[in-house]
Amino acid sequence: AQKITQTQPGMFVQEKEAVTLDCTYDTSDPSYGLFWYKQPSSGEMIFLIYQGSYDQQNATEGRYSLNFQKARKSANLVISASQLGDSAMYFCAMRPFGNEKLTFGTGTRLTIIP
Amino acid sequence: NAGVTQTPKFQVLKTGQSMTLQCAQDMNHEYMSWYRQDPGMGLRLIHYSVGAGITDQGEVPNGYNVSRSTTEDFPLRLLSAAPSQTSVYFCASSPQGRPNSPLHFGNGTRLTVT
Question: Which residue numbers in chain B have pLDDT < 70?
Answer without folding.
Answer: 1
